């Protein structure tokens, strides 16, 4: 087992079973899918589109992920099939890159199925590689080996390397495809000259032998199957309830819903089963949106935090993004954590991009560092502020019923993405009744931005960033009357006690309280580096 | 970069940076510590004791984990320093083994610090190995290499292998120790003839340069540091609140608290900074404990579910164990998930050992499979039952105030563990005022179990397993009067509507409602295989 390195010391080895171990950080399939999309979006690939589908290959359902990004050389493909190799962590790339760990393809693909083929074209070379647990098991491999076969893209002939012929034989014998023609058919199915197609088979099944993803209920979506009454009944040996699952946010059971908010500002269009995923800006579904600013003392960044009321009050908390990518959804903070007494903060959604934190292995959580805890603490206080402000405001205006209505939403601009240049443009709210599925700069009602060559509209710069509302309740009140610790307690009883005190000074002079925000809610400090960089 | 395997096909490679990537599945340090304890407890090692400490080595704080288990051969140590090699998944071992992924040491140690040395003695051989990010960075390694140096345990002389001398040189040059004498001093500090000591240095620090673990506040504990008012204030540029963190369960910030409930029935005694961690049975802190039975239709197992009321009502939900090891704490189910209306299920804690589910990468979650969702659904219904029963019972007895008092607790036996044989024995509740810190079978008031040679007391077998209470509210009611979906709604308004309906038949004839449970609350179906197996 012991292989020596050039240093004369043995290498750490990797058992084929580690492929499964490594994939178990994805508790569900959607975060695994997200890894593959991240890879297509990230710098170095920068696909304009990615197509996600379920297809039939030799009678087996397969998942396919096809993008028109820049493709890979055989060497780069080997890195993708290895562990921890990423160039994303350094240089300019890091400004945009979501990937940091060099593990997304392995953990993601092996979570979705036992076996994967990767077809990639980079203009000159087209290469197929295989990461397959079934293959490694069949040949009783002691370590993870990865067949890689390059072909000339022009002549389609095999490029002979030290292991290309053995690799080709392995793929034809042990994968779901058995002829060279099939390999080339997959290359040809990538719609552009460059790009990558991932084919995953032996997709994961539940103990009842059904695929873990439900492809039938909605033929334009990947869904988690509903839990059936009958199954629960068996577990209970008597009558059960069909309502085993509460009213949970749709992003937990619909891939389309999850992908629609996966990126604050998507740079790659996702086409799921033939239908484009429409990017939904979370903040656009909220009423009474306001923004606040968070400046962590351990970071140079100033970050915008958007708050609003969700029409569906059951789903509330902070949507935490990292480098444009959703990490945590509906994270409860501040008064939302209170388990006793009157419910406070229910229905409030916050949105923030936390580039100053580190995501965990599966990008579904942050590392639980002191910085993370400080951030949650600060977000809690800000959410309390917002809750106090918005409920007082609504009480004053005797508009409590408006909690259940969308308000203001129509006053903010609608954001659409150009299909050609992938820039985001704002159009007046009433210009379209719904976000158009297909749109390009040439349709822009605003002539200034009616061309793909116009730069993206500037978002609020870091210097301008300031809260959108005055926090009147803080100004009206007597400073330092009460202990600061009151903050969390008081937000429970907003109407009953009008004179809680928190001293706080704002750098910006009074702006109208609770006016609609001026800029798109997804803008945030640190976004400037991204503007205009799409598709590069 | 490409190394060929014996199959003539290139190996997947592992970058040194993957050591960090792989560790990021542990969002915090406590779950990383737990991995190292799991390893010491698991079959093949079966340590009776593990000592966890923070020490000073050459001026640097180091974490040490020392056990008196069976130690390792150089070959086994190499597997431990490799990825995915575990023998725990198969044969008889799997009945008891917590480890399944062959990744615990790597993910755990590299989460706690950048570098680790492992000293291990197996009776004949004593071996030191190194897994060090600093070393790999220093020598600009392209792959993870792991110096391993075996010595004769008798003569203390180096065993010459193909890489032992180069490995020794690497350790003395690049680790925190620089002489062979220091190596042998570490071997000697392992208190028995066999055993393993892990030394971790360059332990993780926050951005403020303080160690992520607070060693000062409590010198007998590892704690997560408190968030200071000042830090939050800076983040908010004005007055903040010290109450940034809510009343969270102590297991989230005190390692001692976490370790006290990490195992349902600990087989290895943990000594943290010189003081033994007293195993707390979660159920013993509850009042009104009852048990129910869950039989998943996808599994052969019948599993006991214990419910009770937590004196601290803020902490509630299901404690989910897997093979004796805590995976999820305070997971909300059933009516506890309701976000609107009257609070139901608050204060109810449930305890279950879910060996039929699969833990995720970091053992802090389960894979989100259909089986998992079915289990949560069924637990929700059972918790609703319990809540209805207990609140009705308390209403009848006009004892609502007893929600805040411990009740029944003294009637169930106290469980103590013998220091010699590690068997668990029950003693009458009033025999000791508190769990004795040091206890052996010879002190047992019950002569039948006054010797280490007596087998462990039998727990309820699977066949006997039945709910401990009658679920009166189900019997009194008219079957099929209402839709089954009512289950979750009705638990909100228990007092107001006395006649909800759920049909359900129980195999066991009437037992007294809400009597104290007969058996220890941590017993569960599937536990039999473990009885008597400790320390083997």
From TrEMBL, chains A, B:
Localization per record: Nucleus
Keywords for this protein: Coiled coil, Metal-binding, Nucleus, Zinc, Zinc-finger
A GO MF term: zinc ion binding
Name of this chain's protein: MORC family CW-type zinc finger protein 3
Residue ranges with Polar residues bias: 493-506
One GO term describing the cellular component: nucleoplasm
This protein's encoding gene: zgc:152774
Compositional bias segments (type: Basic and acidic residues): 518-530
Basic residues biased stretches: 471-483
Highest taxon above the source species: Eukaryota
């Amino acid at each position: 087992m012991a292989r020596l390195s050039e240093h004369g010391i043995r290498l750490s080895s990797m058992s084929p079973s580690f492929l499964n171990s490594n994939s178990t950080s994805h508790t569900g399939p959607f975060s695994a899918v997200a890894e593959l999309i991240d890879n297509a979006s990230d710098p170095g690939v920068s696909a304009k589109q990615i197509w996600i589908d379920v297809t039939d290959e030799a009678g087996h359902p397969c998942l396919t992920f096809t993008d028109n990004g820049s493709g890979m050389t055989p060497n780069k493909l080997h890195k993708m099939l290895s562990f921890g190799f990423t160039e994303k962590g350094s240089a300019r790339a890091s400004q945009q890159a979501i990937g940091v760990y060099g593990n997304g393809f392995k953990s993601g693909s092996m979570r979705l199925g036992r076996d994967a083929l990767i077809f990639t074209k980079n203009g000159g070379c087209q290469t197929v590689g295989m990461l397959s647990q079934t293959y490694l098991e069949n040949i009783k491999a002691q370590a993870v080996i990865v067949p890689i076969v390059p072909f000339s893209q022009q002549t389609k002939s095999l490029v002979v390397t030290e292991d290309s012929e053995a690799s080709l034989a392995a793929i034809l014998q042990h994968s779901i495809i058995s002829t060279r023609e099939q390999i080339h058919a997959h290359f040809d199915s990538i719609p552009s000259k460059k790009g990558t197609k991932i084919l995953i088979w032996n997709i994961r099944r539940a103990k009842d032998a059904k695929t873990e993803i439900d492809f039938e209920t909605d033929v334009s979506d990947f869904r988690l199957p509903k839990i059936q009454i009958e199954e629960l009944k068996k577990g209970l040996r008597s009558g059960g309830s069909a309502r085993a699952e509460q009213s949970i946010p749709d992003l937990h059971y619909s891939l389309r819903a999850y992908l629609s908010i996966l990126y604050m500002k998507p740079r790659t269009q996702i086409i799921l089963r033939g239908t484009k995923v429409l990017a939904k800006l979370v903040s656009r579904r909220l009423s009474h949106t306001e923004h606040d600013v968070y400046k962590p003392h351990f970071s140079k960044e100033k970050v915008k935090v958007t708050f609003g009321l969700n029409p569906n009050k059951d789903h509330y908390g902070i949507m935490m993004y990292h480098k444009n990518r959703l990490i945590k959804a509906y994270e409860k903070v501040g008064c939302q954590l209170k388990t006793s007494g009157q419910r406070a903060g229910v229905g409030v959604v916050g949105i923030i991009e936390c580039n100053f934190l580190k995501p965990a292995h599966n990008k579904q959580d942050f590392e639980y560092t002191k910085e993370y805890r400080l951030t949650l603490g600060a977000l809690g206080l800000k959410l309390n502020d917002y809750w106090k402000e918005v409920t007082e405001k609504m009480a004053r205006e005797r508009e409590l019923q408006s909690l259940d209505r969308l308000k203001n939403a129509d006053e903010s601009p609608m954001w659409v993405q150009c299909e050609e240049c992938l820039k985001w443009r704002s159009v007046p709210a009433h210009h379209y009744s719904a976000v158009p599925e297909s749109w390009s700069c040439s349709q822009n009602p605003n002539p200034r931005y009616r061309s793909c060559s116009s730069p993206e509209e500037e978002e609020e710069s870091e210097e301008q960033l300031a809260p959108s509302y005055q926090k009147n309740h803080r100004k009206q009140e007597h400073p330092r009357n009460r202990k600061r610790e009151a903050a969390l307690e008081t937000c429970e009883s907003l109407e009953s006690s009008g004179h809680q005190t928190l001293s706080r000074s704002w750098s910006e002079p009074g702006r109208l309280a609770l006016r609609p925000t001026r800029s798109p809610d997804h803008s945030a400090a640190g976004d400037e580096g991204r503007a205009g960089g799409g598709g590069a």
